[in-house]
């Protein structure tokens, strides 16, 4: 299952991404928001991040105006590696090298076509499992344990 969430600046793109993922046979759990009424993005980022960190959902997508706030908030949750991507190369690399489990996007800075391409690449790319990447991820995990 894929977790998805957004703030008021990104409901349109969230719905398009949700439809895209579902059309590919993926189950999507929508954490909101569902309108353009102003909300606080951390509430949605944390809900999605907790669902991914707990294993309730395998991966997640977060969208706000720029994707910056969502990615900052999500990365505060232990076990989350949320990557803000504005191009397909970064989406591929963050899955292959960082085993990112949440993708962050910005509706105001990324066009719909590109955003959908980024989603396709992110969800279509597996973690390489390479020893050097695993070692680096383990170092990040050790930092989390120091909190």
Structural key phrases:
6 helices; alpha/beta; five-stranded parallel β-sheet; 147 residues; 50% helix
How would you summarize this macromolecular structure in one to three sentences?
The protein is of the alpha/beta class.
Describe the overall structure:
With 147 residues, the protein is an alpha/beta fold. It contains six helices and five strands, in the order βαβαβαβαβαα. A five-stranded parallel β-sheet has the order 2-1-3-5-4, with helices on both faces. α1 links the parallel β1 and β2. The model has no long low-confidence stretch (mean pLDDT 97).
Largest sheet: 5 strands, parallel
Helix-strand pattern, N to C?
EHEHEHEHEHH
User: Which spans of ≥5 residues are poorly predicted at pLDDT below 50?
Assistant: none
Broad shape: globular
Helix-residue proportion: 40-55%
Distance between the termini: 29 Å
Number of helices: 6
Strand content: 5-15%
SS content category = alpha/beta
Number of E-type strands: 5
Spatial strand sequence of the major β-sheet: 2-1-3-5-4
Average pLDDT for all residues: 97
Radius of gyration equals: 14 Å
């Amino acid at each position: 299952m894929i977790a998805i969430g957004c703030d008021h600046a990104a409901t349109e793109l969230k719905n398009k991404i949700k439809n895209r993922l579902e059309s590919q046979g993926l189950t999507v759990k929508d954490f909101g928001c569902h309108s353009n009424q102003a909300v606080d993005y951390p509430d949605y980022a944390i809900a999605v991040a907790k669902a991914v960190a707990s294993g309730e959902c395998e991966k997640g997508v977060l969208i706000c105006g720029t994707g910056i706030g969502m990615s900052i908030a999500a990365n505060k949750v232990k076990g989350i590696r949320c990557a803000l991507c504005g191009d397909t190369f970064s989406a591929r690399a963050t899955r292959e090298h960082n085993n990112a489990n949440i993708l962050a996007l910005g509706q105001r800075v990324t066009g719909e076509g590109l955003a959908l391409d980024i989603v396709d690449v992110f969800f279509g790319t597996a973690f390489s499992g390479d020893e050097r990447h695993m070692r680096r991820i383990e170092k990040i995990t050790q930092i989390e344990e120091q909190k």
